[in-house]
């Protein structure tokens, strides 16, 4: 039986995680005003692109779920900075290169891989690889590689709007900067919540439940994206 001290935080956590799924099932969704702006802008638009990048990251539940898994068991600031930097490096590289060199993949497939990254991190946190393989894959390399896929997902979405060449590189730098600002803001909130939670005895009880929810959310993302791929 789960007592009230555990049941209540579990319910809140479950609602928090699934809210990412239920608000907007389309990964990397773009609202109408942003869509109109991206399709009609000309020249350098530094501030608007930076704002769009920040908004995109804050509402990008798939990126945030992955980062929750990455930092869940990181206790030292140095480790958190290192892992987030690895993700940022991979993310920034493919975002810039994907758009500048017009590298395209199917958006549903790349988003399914992003869903896989959430499954991977939750499963790794549960010790699944150690039980099955006897060892865990290199976590830093995995974060970097999945960061490349996350950036490629954003690049794929941006290319749908056929951004004009005039001012493109500067606008992409601004977008990337906005993504990092949004990521920093979201991580600050997540870190504060996790740090506070770690002081409570329920953190230990809920670590398994939380990462099981992450795995479940990742499989839901994969299923949704693969369904979209085969239907469309």
Automatic annotation (TrEMBL):
It comes from the Bacteria. Keywords: Membrane, Transmembrane, Transmembrane helix. The chain crosses the membrane at residues 53-75, 80-101, 107-123, 135-153, 173-197, 209-231. InterPro entries: Put_HupE_UreJ. The keyword Translocase does not apply. Pfam families: HupE_UreJ_2 (PF13795). This is HupE/UreJ family protein. The lineage of its organism: Bacteria, Pseudomonadati, Pseudomonadota, Gammaproteobacteria, Alteromonadales.
């Amino acid at each position: 039986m789960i007592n009230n001290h555990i049941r209540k935080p579990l319910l809140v956590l479950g609602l928090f995680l699934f809210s990412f799924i239920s608000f907007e099932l389309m990964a990397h969704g773009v609202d109408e005003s942003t869509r109109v702006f991206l399709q009609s802008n000309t020249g350098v638009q530094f501030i608007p692109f930076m704002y769009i990048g920040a908004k995109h990251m804050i509402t990008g539940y798939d990126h945030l779920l992955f980062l929750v898994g990455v930092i869940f068991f990181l206790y030292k600031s140095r480790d958190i900075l290192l892992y987030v930097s690895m993700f940022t490096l991979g993310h920034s590289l493919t975002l810039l290169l994907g758009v500048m060199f017009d590298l395209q993949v199917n958006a549903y497939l790349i988003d399914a891989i992003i869903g896989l990254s959430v499954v991977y991190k939750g499963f790794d946190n549960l010790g699944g690889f150690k039980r099955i393989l006897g060892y865990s894959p290199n976590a830093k390399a995995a974060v970097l590689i999945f960061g490349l896929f996350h950036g490629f997902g954003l690049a794929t979405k941006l290319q749908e709007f056929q951004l004009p060449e005039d001012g493109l590189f500067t606008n992409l730098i601004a977008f990337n900067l906005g993504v990092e600002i949004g990521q920093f803001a979201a991580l600050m909130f997540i870190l504060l919540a996790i740090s506070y939670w770690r002081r409570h005895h329920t953190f230990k009880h809920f670590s398994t439940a939380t990462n099981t929810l992450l795995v479940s959310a990742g499989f839901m993302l994969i299923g949704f994206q693969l369904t979209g791929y085969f239907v469309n």
